Amino acid sequence: MPTRRSFLAQSGAALTSALLLPALPGCAPTNPLAHIKGQLLGPDAATGHLLRDPSRIPTPTHTLDTDVLIIGGGVAGLAARRWLHRHGQSNTLLVELAGEAGGNSSAGHNAASAYPWGAHYLPVPDVRNVELLAFLQEAGTLTGYAPGGLPIYNDYHLCHDPEERLNIQGHWQEGLVPSLGLSAADQAQFARFFKLIETLKTARGRDGRDAFCIPLAHASTDEAYRQLDQLTFAAYLDREQFTTPALRWYLNYACRDDYGATAAQVSAWAGLHYFASRKGRAHNAGSGDVLTWPEGNNFLVKSLIGQADAPIQPHTLAYALRETATGIEALTYNVATRQSTRVRARQVLLATPQHVAHRLLTAVPGHQLPPPDSLHHAPWLVANLTVAGLPQGPGRPLSWDNVRYDSPSLGYINATQQSLKQDDSGPKVISLYWPLTDEAPALARRRAYQTPYAEWLPRVVAELETYHPGVTPYLQQADLWVWGHGMVAPTPGLLWGAARQAAMRPVRNRIFFAHTDFSGISIFEEGFYQGIRAAKEMLAVI
Amino acid sequence: MAELLEAGPAPSLTAAPGPPAPDARLPGLLLAAVAVIATCGLIYELIAGTLASYLLGDSVTQFSTIIGAYLFAMGIGSWLSKFLDGPLLRWFIRLEILVGIVGGCMAPLLFLSFEYVASFRLLLYTLVGLTGILVGLEIPLLMRILEHRYPFKDLVARVFTFDYIGALLASLIFPLVLVPQLGLIRTSLVFGALNLAVAAVVLVRFPETRPYRRRFGAGIAAALLGLGVLFVFANKLLAYTETLAFQGQVIYSKSTPYQRIVLTRNPRELRLFLNGNLQFSSADEYRYHEALVHPLLQALPQARRVLVLGGGDGLAVRELLKYKQLQSIRLVDLDPGMTELFQHNELLLALNKGSLNNPKVQVLNADAYQWVRQDTTRYDAIIVDFPDPGNYSIGKLYSAAFYTALAKRLVPGGRMVVQSTSPYLARQSFWCVAHTLAAVGLHTIPYHLYVPSFGEWGYVLAGPDTHWRGDAGPLPAGLRYITPATIHDMLRFPPDMSEIPTEVNQLNNQALVRYFEEDWGPYVH
């Protein structure tokens, strides 16, 4: 077995060097991480921060006309572009700050595998989300419908088994719900919680709409459920006597995973929504199944891009908006050519986070965006680690999602999970996700931006060592990505307060908004929904 | 040891002339040590030779080269002994401790490392060389210690007498007592302990060892403890190594990047193991391979083009070649180590009749799943002969998605057959394969037979229509198991292996691997 053999050889070498090196005179122990290549990446924060002082940007040298200018090439912007194209408005221009569109669904690749830099899966969708299903069918992810009417998903896109495992004190159990060493009382609380979720999954408000659903815009307005948005999830769990540490760990994990915030920071509605909104159905999969690709949701982004034929300009920062008699004039700066352009559009879609929209609308009155720092955006670290092997502890084998109980990170996913190869002894890429939730977001963000690669690397390696003791010699490459504004967190009052609805209202039918910031929940389905909602608003005006 | 002690003159041990030794029996003690260490030395040599022929096969070569290397290393040791100066007794005790550790650990180390090290031979000969050098140092050193105790002619006579007595003892008790009673690992450990005991006795009985007695004593105690622990867990160690699993003599073994191939032979049969799992026994493999090939091929008299997935032993291809109308047979097996072995090894060529070297046969070494997805040829028949679905990687080769891809490779009216584990020992697994094939829209015909070395074994025929018949066409002459009547019998499933409901095996549930673990769990734990 080559992996075991090289494992023995490498651990032997590691042991020998650990034992011998300190003893040899004049031969200090070398840096145990010296063999790991890699770099620190991230969204182009430096260019983005030009927004704070646009006077440093050269004045525009030429002019460009378009019907619709879309600023921001994340999922919302791309979904809007696709929708506009399919409904008669193909004269659009999308500008994107980064080198490629994709936003939180960016991806990278190396010799071992493609891998995600952000969002990496899509739960099997609700069958009522027909717009999403139509898109997935065109993407080849949904291959048809069974006689009973349920969608059939592409077997190669459904996450392959084994899907999840949890490391508790060195032992890997199946699934992420802790089961090892739970007392009867603990188990009873888990059972009560999941029973509650089953009830909430089918619950409807007095208006006949689902209590919880995706997109959340379709959820019931019934106060009985919406009042859950007023208290934190943690307070709700205390009130409902969900107190056992294992359950609280699990629920807190879920909040950090989907929202980049803790159960004490997000609202009870959001905390419950994470579980109760998962009601997808399929002929060949269940509601708990997910669709995934080695490159994560970048697969979906590439499909979104491919399903419309309209220009996308990368490396381009929009830095000012101004109303004119006929529409909107936007100033853009191309980082690659170092030239600025005046773009004249009849309509502009701001598919950017709210704090960016704020900067762009400095000279435009009448918008109802909340104050810039009112949203909670935790910074995230994503580490893509190329490993020659993973020393396997006792229990379940390597799975798609691998989590350790009480771990400060969220664990890692195996980017090579969907591989069909029999020989999986080659290098793998694993993607470690780490929302930096220990400090207030602004503070954590500043610290994250100031932390150099040389400081991140030992932290990431130490974290991985808690999953796989002795893994360090196997690490070949560690590329790290810091997301300053990882994702919006649904803090109490955000989802069902009046401010969120007001914020997405168009400005004089010329400036429109689409971003998951306007949903309050940062998932693919919400970005997709926001893009289509905004596109429909724009088309209605024409 | 006491009976071997003999009285002798008692001058100093280290240097002549000196004060008389306090104990006149001490030189006798050393002569007894000669017998013990000679026994130990030969035992180590026998262990290395036996282990090498056990693990590597070809016992004549292994024994011959091990003995040669060992004796040569002893020669090096003897030569090196002249560089040892100073207090010789201290050197001797050191040497015994080292021999005890190295020799004692030789068998456990070789057994354990066999599967893991890249070059087992290198490790083997390194250990043999090291032990040989250490053992080679022993006698010259002892002779120098004793040189002023006896006249030279007496010294030589006595030392070598005891040396050869020890050798005789070793050569008799090794095959008659030690291997049957203790096994190789424990024998190795016991003789390591004897070397340590010699060191301990010398340490205690010779007063000049006093300055370092405590330190050396602790070392000996620690080494004895280590060997003792290994002795207690010897069976666990052996169970951990694969060797216990194989009955019969290993005549070939090789670790390829994909699997460990082991061939064993006993007077009755040749057996092939992949990763420790029996693939076939030459005594009854004809049953398995006739049943795999003929029910499918007899019903396809028009077949010209056949695809075989897995089956790198060429035995299914041997059966296929009995149909003269076939124009091309393409075999896709992951492991070149496997197909090359069955293309070149004479014993195996006799078994598969050189099928893989037949001009009609094309052998491709590729990962079947990916290969099938990119293949564009269509086949009249496809034979799927993968290892059992014992892990998640192989489980993918039994998935609905894979069968969908495979069905696209059939011509209209074409058909495939899938080896589907045992319907008796792994009933859920067998029916899961059948249901998975049915789930992708194929008409299935499950069947089974008894293969003595496997037990009840099952297959599933699958095709787009219901036209298959068990008495459709002529069978090749000379078959030993398959007749129209046996085909008919194979279709019947008695109640203890009749159809049971199962899930369909999909990539996203790997139901089959889970069934397989459940089914086989009671047999392996």
Automatic annotation (TrEMBL), chain A:
The molecule here is called Amino oxidase
Q: Is Lipid biosynthesis found in the keyword set?
A: no
- What lineage does UniProt assign to this protein's organism? Bacteria, Pseudomonadati, Bacteroidota, Cytophagia, Cytophagales
Signal sequence residues: 1-28
Keyword Signal annotated:
yes
Record keywords, A-Z: Signal
Q: Which Gene3D superfamilies match?
A: FAD/NAD(P)-binding domain
The organism is Hymenobacter frigidus
Q: What SUPFAM superfamilies does the record point to?
A: FAD/NAD(P)-binding domain (SSF51905)
Automatic annotation (TrEMBL), chain B:
What organism does the record attribute this protein to?
Hymenobacter frigidus
Give the stretches traversing the membrane: 29-56, 62-80, 92-111, 123-143, 155-178, 184-204, 216-234
User: Residue ranges of the PABS domain?
Assistant: 228-464
Gene (UniProt): speE1
| NCBIfam families noted in UniProt | PRK03612.1 (NF002956)
Uppermost EC category: transferase
Species lineage: Bacteria, Pseudomonadati, Bacteroidota, Cytophagia, Cytophagales
Function, please?
Catalyzes the irreversible transfer of a propylamine group from the amino donor S-adenosylmethioninamine (decarboxy-AdoMet) to putrescine (1,4-diaminobutane) to yield spermidine.
User: So what does this thing catalyse?
Assistant: S-adenosyl 3-(methylsulfanyl)propylamine + putrescine = S-methyl-5'-thioadenosine + spermidine + H(+)
**What is the protein name for this chain?**
Polyamine aminopropyltransferase
KW Lyase (keyword) present: no
Summarize where S-methyl-5'-thioadenosine binds, as residue positions: Q259, D333, D367, A368
Keyword check for Cell cycle = no
What membrane topology is annotated for this entry? Multi-pass membrane protein
Alphabetic keyword roster: Cell membrane, Membrane, Polyamine biosynthesis, Spermidine biosynthesis, Transferase, Transmembrane, Transmembrane helix
Principal location: membrane
The subunit field of the Swiss-Prot or TrEMBL record says: Homodimer or homotetramer.
UniProt lists the family membership as follows: Belongs to the spermidine/spermine synthase family.
Gene3D superfamilies from the UniProt entry: Vaccinia Virus protein VP39 (3.40.50.150)
EC number(s) recorded for this UniProt protein: 2.5.1.16
Q: What are the catalytic residues? A: D385 (proton acceptor)
Pathway assigned to this chain's UniProt record? Amine and polyamine biosynthesis; spermidine biosynthesis; spermidine from putrescine: step 1/1
